[in-house]
Design brief:
heterodimer, A: MetI-like fold, 12 helices, B: 278 residues, mainly alpha, 1% strand, globular
Amino acid sequence: MRTMSPLSRTLGIVFLLALPLPIFIVFGASFNGSAYIQFPPESYSLRWYIEAFTDPRWARAVGTSLWIAAVTSVVVTTISFLAAYFTLRYAPKINTLLELAIFSPLFFPHACMGVAAVALMAKLGIVGTPGAIILAHIIVTVPFSYRPVHVALRSVDPDLIRAAEVMGASELRALKDIILPICRSGILTSLLFTGIISFDEVTVTMFLIGPEITTLPVQIFTFIQDDASPVLAAISTISVIITFLAIVLLERVAGLTFFVQRSGS
Amino acid sequence: MNSGERVTFTKSLMLLPMLIILAMFFISVFTLFSSAFVDRGGFSLKYFQQIIDRPDYHVVFYRTVLSSITVAILAVLFSYPIALLLWRANKWRNLLLIVVLVPWLVSLVVRTYGWIVLLGPKGFINAFLGWLGVVDEPVKLMFNDTGIIIGLTHVLVPFAVISILSSLLSIEENLEEASRVLGASGFQTFRNIVLPLSLPGVFTALMVLYLASVGAIVTPLLLGGITEKFVGSQIYQEVMATYNMSKAAAWSICLLSLSFVSLVIIKLIERRALRGQE
């Protein structure tokens, strides 16, 4: 009984195709031959890609964003896994309270998060260091990491663990050989999802950069404000490709069902 | 895994890293509050008073709230047909979902940059209109509220799709079938079964979109320019250009209180709408 009226189907298709449109426009404009940004291009060239790859500022920003994303995703996933494992196994009573605290940053507008973050980091004296950016990214991504990991851990049958431990396996062994493999897709979802968020985060990060360090999205933002060189189209395309590859990888290794689950289930 | 076994001190250390991160978050909010009430070293309500006194600041708050309401409603209207399409497309759902997820997760800056290329005076839309001969002068699509609303709506549609799709997917198939078997038309089934049951997703989307929109900085700054300010762009300027942390903190607290009040109102509307169903 899965039918749809032609009108709503057409609207759905048109709106859906409009979503990636600005990205395609940027992609098209990146092959522009002239000195100012233009779509459709009048002449074609790869000069902006050459500039993107030879200008050390862009290489450094891409590198910074990639390693910050990697560190953030591994650390935040580990923190969430330990907390969810402990809570489910040893302290189920505190779960409601813990989740309330973990999900509370979601109710803060990003502008407020940014000011709060820079206020804290200034107190700690670490504005403009990788540590400040990573700490802020961990705070921002914790809710997105805790949910998939918690859902995965909750699905582990307690009898399996009990059986392993009755047979003489230590808690660590049960974790390594039983729990981790069962939670594999939840953990991978957390790793990739938080990595993508960190790689593309800009609203909070732009308060925390300094002369020594900036991330790719923040540098794109700064350049858009300063001058509108078409090199931005090339560098934006590179950033889209990195995000796209991460999403495809996520689809391959863990599936996308996590994104369309109701939070209750 | 749900057993509630006995805890030893060593094991409770597993919770420690999470507690540190949560503490950091709450300390940062506390620091935000404490710095808002300070001027030249002493307690002061100066910046709150300033917001109350200056009509040009009221305009910034009005613009932010009104634009955000518009954006949230527009985004939900655009995303509903997309969510329906994905819901119906069993076989292609994963592929179509990627078409939604990529624009959602690609950096905000890049998507906004795409809109600059589209909406700018030499942008695609103006070039197209000029080519059609509809307009002689470029239409001003950027550096005004229109630009901000177009950009923010586009940025936020993907999340709304995901939220509504989640609701649709939790509807039991039998319900629809029963409705059709009992003689309801496709539209009646949609109106009486599908739409009401998808409302939780719609309201989640409205709330998250509204929050994301009032807290936006990048899109209003880039598409709104200097004059058409959002609360977020004002806050950004206070921190990054005039280095006035106290003022930025006071603005953040007003924004925060405003969003909490709005969330309560949306929650009340939701409760009303859902009660009407029973």
